[in-house]
Amino acid sequence: MAMHSNQNYSLKSSNSFNIKASCSRIYFPSSLAELQQLPDLSAGNTSDKFYILGEGSNTLFVESQAPIIIQPKFNGISILEQDDRFVVTVGAAENWHDLVCFCLEQGIYGLENLALIPGSVGAAPVQNIGAYGVEFADFCQEIQWYEFASKTLQSLTKQACRFAYRDSIFKQERYNKGLITQVTFNFPKAWQANLSYAGLDILAKDSTAKQVMAQVIALRSSKLPDPKELPNAGSFFKNPIVNDADFAQLQQKYPKIPHYPQKNGEIKLAAGWLIDQAGLKGFRHGAVGVHQQQALVLVNYGSDLGADIISLAKYIQRKVAAKFSVSLIPEVRMITHKGERSFSSLSDSNPIEDINSIRGNRDD
Ligand code: EPU
User: Which architecture characterizes domain 227-361 according to CATH?
Assistant: First the structure.
């Protein structure tokens, strides 16, 4: 059977920022045979003219024209029970939060801290989603990955995926060389609630996984806007990681600066705090803005243009750099008609001017 595909496809309802964009072609492969029918996208200069889309909850279409899109449609969940663990294999197109709920209903625990994260299961490994002290990698056993060049499926162990903070091999060496079709999780039956993160520490030590999930949902709902009500893509920037010396200087100036020491001795800062301290929480410019409850989330009040979000993000980046000398790098993926681009390479056609400096000039 021929693979499902479409021409001149609107992506407005396929991105959680609700940006108006369309692509000349979208493919929905749901089997190995269909993957093998894809045109050779990784060859030569076409290599960056396509984008693999999950549910579009971490994607910003920067222009009204998007590149060719591949949206994998692999479904299904299977559970293998062993003496000491559950091995759960899940198609890439399954919804992440539905999987979390399904597991908990089956008595399979571990993903409760990752409840309510928007997006698909296949997207989770790409940026190694994480929240409330847990990350995807903690429960990953292996990833099934389709390689465009060889037209074969491969199995990648957790180690081979090289998971790090919001990073994996799928954003590095294997970027656009294939796509994730299936994820296999390993959930040890010996389960312990992870209550380390601020906000979960109020729970009793013997809380059940369902109680932890309820608290995670309550925390997220109080801070993070529901994309269906107020379009957004969660945290817009990554939390920046700085070295010891730079951190010492910052801490001297800002003793209250939130910080999280990393295993390698570097220090992770809270981008939301930096943006908040730069005076931008709740800032609004035209139809886009910074969320009132969480400054790391950019929200779209009704713009059709990805460029409006870019202008806002560049403004935030400038303000934070000016105040803290820290460079914020987006977590959200930037997609132009030619494919993905780095944030720094994008031009800002309509820069937001600094109100304070304009006022300053007038006062002179
Ligand atoms: N903060 C402020 N003002 C703000 C926002 C945050 O002062 O407007 C402070 C908080 O008080 C806290 C610190 O900054 O001291 C960190 O804030 P929070 O706990 O809300 O988490 P985050 O670092 O902003 C990260 C993830 C989220 C994840 C939460 C919870 C990143 C880029 N973001 O946010 O992930 O849900 O931790 O674990 O790592 C996402 O990636 O889309 C996402 C939502």
Answer: Alpha-Beta Complex (3.90)
Q: What is the pTM of this model?
A: 0.95
Q: Which of 34, 135, 142, 331 is catalytic?
A: 331
CA dihedral 275, 276, 278, 280 (to 10 degrees): 90
* Known active-site residue 235: yes
Domain-by-domain residue ranges, the chain?
A: 5-70, 77-219, 227-361
Write out pLDDT tens, residues 111-162: 999 999 999 999 999 999 999 999 999 999 999 999 999 999 999 999 999 9
Q: What's 77-219's CATH class?
A: alpha beta
Tell me which of 166, 174, 220, 333 is the catalytic residue: 166
User: Could you report the per-residue pLDDT of 227-286, keeping only the tens digit for each?
Assistant: 999 999 999 999 999 999 999 999 999 999 999 999 889 999 999 999 999 999 999 999
Give the mean pLDDT of 18-28. 97
Compute the distance from residue 296 Cα to the ligand 1 centre, in Å: 7
Buried-state track 309-348, b at ≥16 Cβ within 10 A, e below 16: bbbbbbbbbbbbeeebebebebbbbbbbbebbeebeebee
Which residue type sits at 194?
Answer: N
- Shortest-distance Cα residue to atom 27 of ligand 1: 131
Residues with CB under 6 A from ligand 1: 131-132, 197, 223-224, 234-235, 238-239, 258, 270, 272-273, 276, 281, 294-296, 331
Contact of 59 with 67, CB cutoff 8 Å: no
Q: Please identify which of the residues 5, 235, 303, 311 carries the catalytic annotation.
A: 235
Instruction: Write the CATH number of the domain with boundaries 5-70.
Output: 3.30.43.10
Q: In ligand 1, which atom is closest to the CA atom of 237?
A: 32
What 3-state DSSP class applies to 308?
helix
DSSP designation for 54: S
